[in-house]
Amino acid sequence: MHENQYHAKKRSVLHKACAEVTGFSELYRRLERKISLSGKSKSTLTNYGRHLAKAAIHFNVIPTTLGEEQVNEYLYYLQQTYKSASDSYFKFTVYGLRYVFRMEGLEESYLALPSIKQEKRLPVVLSREETRRLLATPKLLKHRVLLGLLYGCGLRCFEVRNIQLPDIDFDRKMLHVKQGKGKKDRYVPVSSVLCQWLKDYISCENIEDWLFNGRPIGRAGGDFDSRYSQRGVHWAVKHVAKQAGILKTVSAHTLRHTFATHLLEDGLDIVSIKELLGHSRIETTLVYLHVAHYDRVKTYSPLDTLYSGVVSGRSVRGATIPHAIGLPSPPIRINPGPEEENPTTQTTLDCLAEWACCNKTFRIYCETTPSEATP
After folding, report:
1. Is 215 among the residues known to form the active site?
2. Which of 91, 133, 178, 181 is catalytic?
3. 227 has which bridge partners?
4. Which of these ranges, 177-191, 226-240, 359-373, has the smallest mean pLDDT?
5. Does 253 qualify as catalytic in the annotation?
6. What is the pLDDT of residues 257-293, one digit of tens each?
7. Which pTM does this prediction carry?
C-alpha cells in the first residue's frame, strides 16, 4: 500500500467515526487534549484514537457507553479476526479503552478490562561479521551514514531522524541527542570512522534543517515534513539487510540492540550502557545480559565437561573431569598414562566404569588419597 493511501486510511477511520457516531468527535477532542497535556507522543493519540474509532463504528455508539459484555464480545471478535505475532489490534484496543475509561472517570469499566501479559522476548542481535557486511553493502552514502549512526551511537529511529548539523561535535567526537524518549537529552560518542563518513556525506549533500532530509512534496499528514520519514528509515534498513544476505529479521531497533550487546561483550559496564542508551530503568538494560556472549557468563553444555577428557576416541592424560551426578566427589580421570599407574609416584586410582567403543576400551578412574586406598 502506498504511504499516502496508508495514512489516508488511518485518517478516514477517525473522520468516519467523528461524522457518523454521535458524540465521538467531542470524546476524541478530550482525548487529544488529555494526551497532549500528559506529555504523551502523537503516535499514542493516533493508535488510541484509531482503535477507539473502530469500536465506535462497530457499535455505532461511543466506547464509553458500552457495557462489560459488549466490550468482551468486541475484544473476542478482534482476537479471532486479527491474529498476528503481536496481537496489536487486541492490545491497542484494550490500552485505548483503559485510557479513555480512566479519563472519563469510569473506574468500574476500567477494572473490568482483561489484563495484558507482557511478552518476554529477547532482542534480535547481529554478529560482528553480519554488522560489517551490513555496513559495507549500501550503495548510497546516505544509507551507510544512517546505519552507522543507528549502530555506532545506539540511536532510536526518531532520534536519528531528529539530528541536525549543530548536534554533531566533530572536535570532541560527540553527538548531542536532543529530546530522546522521555524528553531527555544525552551525549553519545561518535567513532572516527563515522566522523569521516559524516564529513563526506555533509560535503556532497545539500543539508538544510535536518541531517537526513526527506521529500515531503506531494505528501501530507503523519510525519512527512522535511525530515527523512520513519517509514523511509525502516525501508532503508530492511532493504540493505536483504542485499547483505542477512537472514535475521532486521529493523532500525535491531542495530540499537546490537550496539548495546557488542559494548557489553567488549567489557563496558552495564550502567554506562544504560546511560548511552538513554534508559530510565536499569532493568530495561539488563536484558542484554541474556544475549551477550562474553567470558564471565559464557554458557556451555554439560556434555562439554562431562567427557572433556576424551578427544577423537583417545584419552587425554591428566584431563580432570568436573564432578557429575552419581560419581564420587574425588577428581575423575580418564585412562591415565603409564607413569600415573606407578604407585610409588602417584595416588591410588580406582576404576569406576569401563566401556568399549570402536574396538577400544575406555575406563573412568577415581583418584583417592593413600588413606582412602584399600590396603
Report:
1. no
2. 181
3. 213
4. 359-373
5. yes
6. 999 999 999 889 999 999 999 998 898 898 888 888 7
7. 0.63
